[in-house]
Write a structure and sequence with these properties.
Strand order of the largest sheet: 11-10-12-13-18-17-16-14-15-19
Number of helices: 17
Bound molecules: beta-D-galactopyranose
CATH topology of the largest domain: TIM Barrel
Largest sheet: 10 strands, mixed
Number of strands: 24
Structural class: alpha/beta
CATH architecture of the largest domain: Alpha-Beta Barrel
CATH class of the largest domain: Alpha Beta
Number of domains: 3
Distance between the termini: 15 Å
Mean pLDDT: 97
Shape: globular
Oligomer: single chain
CATH superfamily of the largest domain: Glycosidases
Length: 645
């Protein structure tokens, strides 16, 4: 395991560079990431390149054996570029150029911006592409599938539609544009979703395609950068750092041409008071590992209190700096780079705290980081190990977009049921993969398929095959609702999955922030929220019933034998205990060994390889916990990680 830091030499007086690098080396830092916002320091005016400072700092790290991840600085083009080419800044939903700010607001399609971006990337990669200290490249920073409304982007959107559909008639059919006289008769009538018009009035089929286009457009920008880097820096790894942003790209396609996934990991510093809230980043980490189904990096890891964009958060509690980093390791991160070495003294982010405070005096958090680095030095056995899972949860960006486009009921969001199932399986000591629905299902025993709202016929066929051959499939409410174009399917829900579930939805009730009483077949009570699919079980066995409202006594959850396999259908959204019970039931049916009786928030995962299994036990809460595991009493401090061979 390697620990690194994000460093901004351009923020600091040169006199600090060597002491900083010395302290990094002494502390055990193995890798630094630099450069992602420093374009104005590399090209202070058009065509005048000043890389000497970068040569110097790379050399300082190289002399100390610290590896460098260099970033392309295209997230913040210098102001001279915007001055010369005002069109390079994005156009907002109101059709007007957004105010020229500081970062992240360049238009991915603007020809002038792209010309300068290509040139700076080419210069950088030509200069450092073969430098032995530079081990990897990060493209830009936290790219989003931005919506830009400039003429060029509108043209690109129309081009994307032409390639997908060929004719205007085909678009009209795909979107069902006969509603509200929405039929296009020329390409010029196709406009992006401007802000002043209520988005809820726009056709959801059109909106889904607009989101898909925005993602593809961002990916094209990633490809452009990747090609230049690969040409000048063959043999070096290429990545980009992602997070769960507002305009999420399709992560699977984003990383298709890249070497590894890197994720910016900022778990909460304040543990929620509500015991029902899912806050563990174990879920996010598994989703990141699942993108390429291989180990990944944390490119930015929590190091201090967060602030700037919102008022400051609480400082990480004792144990969090080390515990959260090791949690990332337990879920497949091999390198964890902390954001940032020292808190900035200027700029908008001066209160997004680093490992060192403004005073530059190592404090509690830094000492814990030192301890983390020392622990990392002892973890060589983990190199080359990976996470192997019997269970996979399917995630799809089409579903993500569609639920944002049409929120189904108050309080419902796509990730929730994925997270609840994830927590349930992790709390039974199971590794969980979160994967693309296009990925192979061959190595799994249990597939959790929450809210398969948008239907991809190939996935439907493969899920049928998986169950028929003996697998366990767990489907939930809002599955089979829409076709690939985000139009409703004219069949009884869950439509394409109905034969597998052996039950159908007689009627549904979106109860939003209301509740419904539930009762397991053995009489245990539970509470449901958000949504009630009132089920009619045909061949399926009801295992949970509604216990209030006008459908009291009707099934809420069913289990069906489908050929050699089993299919669950979960018609409501329950308390965590619903998911815990279902996970245990599915594991028992699948004959997969699991741990029973772990306290809430204890997460047990396993990495294996080189003929060994390494177990990670993480106490992801602020209480000490005592419990029995394999006949021994385990006592865990808050946020403590135990690693056992
Ligand atoms: C990340 C971003 C960093 C920094 C950090 C703290 O999302 O990549 O550049 O802004 O958040 O706000």
């Amino acid at each position: 395991m390697r620990i690194g830091v994000d460093y901004y030499p351009e923020h600091w007086d040169r006199s600090l560079w060597i002491p900083d690098a010395n302290l990094m080396k002494k502390t055990g830092v193995k890798v630094v990431r630099i450069g992602e916002f420093a374009w104005s320091r590399m090209e202070p005016e058009e065509g005048r390149f000043t890389f000497e400072w970068l040569d110097e700092i790379i050399e300082i790290f190289a002399e100390r054996g610290i590896d460098v991840v260099l970033c392309t600085p295209t997230s913040c083009p210098p102001l001279w570029l915007y001055e010369a080419f005002p069109e390079a800044v994005q156009t907002g939903r109101d059709g007007r150029k957004i105010a020229t700010g500081i970062r992240g607001h360049r238009c991915y399609n603007n020809r002038d911006f792209l010309r300068y971006a290509r040139r700076i990337i080419d210069r950088m990669t030509a200069r450092y592409g073969q430098n032995p200290a530079v081990i990897a490249w990060q493209i830009d920073n936290e790219l989003e599938a931005n919506f830009c409304f400039c003429e060029t982007c509108i043209g690109e959107f129309r081009k994307w539609l032409k390639e997908k559909y060929g004719t205007i008639d085909a678009i009209n059919r795909a979107y069902g544009n006969n509603v509200w006289s929405g039929e296009y008769s020329s390409w010029d009538q196709i406009l992006p979703p401007y802000g002043s018009y209520p988005h809820a009035w726009l056709n959801p089929s059109f909106m889904l395609d607009f989101n898909r286009y925005a993602s593809d457009n961002m990916i094209q920008y990633v490809k452009m950068q990747t090609e230049i880097i690969r040409k000048n820096s063959p043999g070096r790894q290429v990545t980009t750092n992602v997070w769960f942003c507002e305009n999420m790209p399709d992560f699977y396609r984003t990383f298709e041409g890249l070497d590894f996934v890197s994720y910016d990991n900022y778990p909460t510093t304040k543990i929620p008071a509500d015991p029902e809230e899912c806050y563990s980043h174990g879920f996010h980490l598994d989703l990141m590992r699942g993108i390429k189904q291989q180990n990944f990096w944390i490119m930015e890891e929590l190091s201090g209190g967060k602030g700037c964009w919102a008022p400051m958060s609480e400082m990480p509690q004792p144990g969090m700096i080390k515990g959260y980093s090791l949690q990332a390791l337990a879920h497949g991160a091999d390198t964890v780079v902390h954001f940032r070495w020292r808190s900035a003294v200027s700029g908008a982010e001066m209160f997004w705290h680093g490992l060192l405070d403004h005073s530059n005096v190592p404090g509690r958090r830094f000492l814990e980081f030192e301890d983390l680095c020392a622990t990392a030095e002892t973890l060589d056995a983990i190199d080359g190990t990976e996470i192997i899972s019997d269970i996979a949860i399917l995630y799809s960006s089409d579903n993500e977009y569609s639920f944002k486009i049409q929120p189904q009921t108050r309080g419902m969001y796509y990730m929730e049921q994925l997270q609840r199932f994830h927590q349930a399986f992790t709390n039974h000591g199971k590794n969980v993969d979160i994967i693309d629905h296009h990925a192979s299902f061959a190595s799994y025993r249990i597939l959790v398929v929450p809210q398969m709202y948008i239907t991809d016929p190939d996935t439907v066929a493969r899920l049928h095959r998986f169950a028929a051959e003996g697998g366990i499939v767990i489907l939930t409410n809002r599955s089979g609702v829409k076709d690939e174009n985000n139009k409703c399917i004219m069949e009884q829900l869950p439509t394409v999955y109905r034969d597998m579930t052996g039950a159908y939805v007689e009627e549904y009730n979106p109860i939003g922030d209301g509740t419904v009483s539930l009762k397991f077949a053995d009489g245990e009570a539970c509470t449901g929220r958000q949504w009630c699919d009132i089920l009619c079980a045909q061949t399926a066995e009801p295992v949970v019933f509604y216990d209030s409202r006008f459908y009291q006594g009707k099934p809420a959850v069913t289990v069906n034998a489908y050929e050699k396999g089993t299919v669950y259908y979960v018609g409501t959204v329950g308390e965590q205990k619903l998911y815990n019970r279902l996970a245990k039931d599915a594991l028992t049916r699948a004959n997969v060994p699991f741990l029973d009786g772990l306290p809430a928030h204890v997460e047990v995962t396993t990495r294996s390889g080189n003929g060994r299994e390494i177990q990670f036990i993480f106490n992801n809460c602020e209480q000490e916990q005592r419990f029995e595991l394999d006949g021994t009493e385990i006592v865990m401090e808050p946020f403590e990680m135990k690693i056992r061979n």
